[in-house]
């Protein structure tokens, strides 16, 4: 996402005319990186042994796991810094655009809107990922000679708040989305509002009938 938004910010004048080649390329790179990390962890695993689900924290593969975790943390930090820098760049550009076309103005506004949407996502993910990664890294540096296969499993359950990301993300996105908030408050207000149309109609019908009764002359036979 950071690379795509970087490209959209610097090529804002011609971005909408490009083919989806960049998106396809980034998706392929993402899959390749994920497969590489999986193979890096599993290519020399001892499948004949019964161990805990996170077996890559033993001394033989501990350095490898620490390297991957550190790399992911650095990438997360770089992406977060990139989003904030791009938001500042596009906001400054928005203030000084005069001779830009409508397409360029729209793309700048779209860049700002998408960055404001993505920044809470990347911040929430970073806040929930860094504690577990940092704690395990410190533990590994201090006690790397005595690592056991279940060490990472214990850290996953004790220090890693990443599962809360799934619960916090919808709440944060909903609260940041003004349209959804407005619709929620409108729905609550509408449900709690008493609509007097029915009672007004009944009252008008009653007084109309009463008015007719009083103002209509009775036939001689009934007088």
Automatic annotation (TrEMBL):
<dbReference type="InterPro" id="IPR053286">
    <property type="entry name" value="Nematode_rcpt-like_srab"/>
</dbReference>
<dbReference type="GO" id="GO:0016020">
    <property type="term" value="C:membrane"/>
</dbReference>
<keyword id="KW-1133">Transmembrane helix</keyword>
<protein>
    <submittedName>
        <fullName>G protein-coupled receptor</fullName>
    </submittedName>
</protein>
<feature type="transmembrane region" description="Helical">
    <location>
        <begin position="63"/>
        <end position="87"/>
    </location>
</feature>
<feature type="transmembrane region" description="Helical">
    <location>
        <begin position="21"/>
        <end position="43"/>
    </location>
</feature>
<dbReference type="Pfam" id="PF10292">
    <property type="entry name" value="7TM_GPCR_Srab"/>
</dbReference>
<dbReference type="InterPro" id="IPR019408">
    <property type="entry name" value="7TM_GPCR_serpentine_rcpt_Srab"/>
</dbReference>
<keyword id="KW-0812">Transmembrane</keyword>
<feature type="transmembrane region" description="Helical">
    <location>
        <begin position="162"/>
        <end position="180"/>
    </location>
</feature>
<feature type="transmembrane region" description="Helical">
    <location>
        <begin position="122"/>
        <end position="142"/>
    </location>
</feature>
<keyword id="KW-0472">Membrane</keyword>
């Amino acid at each position: 996402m950071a690379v795509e938004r970087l490209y959209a910010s610097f090529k804002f004048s011609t971005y909408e005319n490009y083919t989806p080649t960049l998106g396809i390329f980034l998706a392929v790179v993402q899959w390749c990186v994920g497969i590489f990390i999986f193979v890096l962890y599993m290519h020399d695993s001892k499948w004949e042994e019964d161990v805990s689900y996170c077996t890559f924290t033993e001394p033989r593969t501990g350095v490898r796991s620490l390297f991957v975790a550190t790399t992911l943390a650095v990438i997360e930090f770089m992406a977060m810094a990139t989003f904030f820098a791009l938001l500042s760049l596009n906001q400054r550009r928005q203030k000084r655009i005069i001779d830009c076309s409508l397409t360029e103005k729209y793309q700048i506004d779209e860049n700002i809107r998408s960055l404001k949407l993505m920044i809470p996502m990347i911040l929430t993910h970073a806040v929930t990922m860094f504690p577990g990664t940092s704690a395990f890294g410190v533990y590994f540096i201090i006690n790397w000679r005595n690592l056991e296969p279940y060490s990472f499993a214990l850290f996953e359950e004790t220090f890693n708040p990443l599962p809360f990301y799934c619960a916090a993300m919808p709440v944060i996105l909903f609260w940041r989305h003004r349209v959804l908030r407005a619709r929620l408050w409108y729905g609550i207000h509408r449900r709690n509002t008493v609509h007097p149309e029915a009672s007004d109609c009944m009252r008008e019908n009653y007084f109309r009938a009463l008015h007719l009764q009083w103002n209509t002359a009775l036939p001689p036979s009934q007088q």
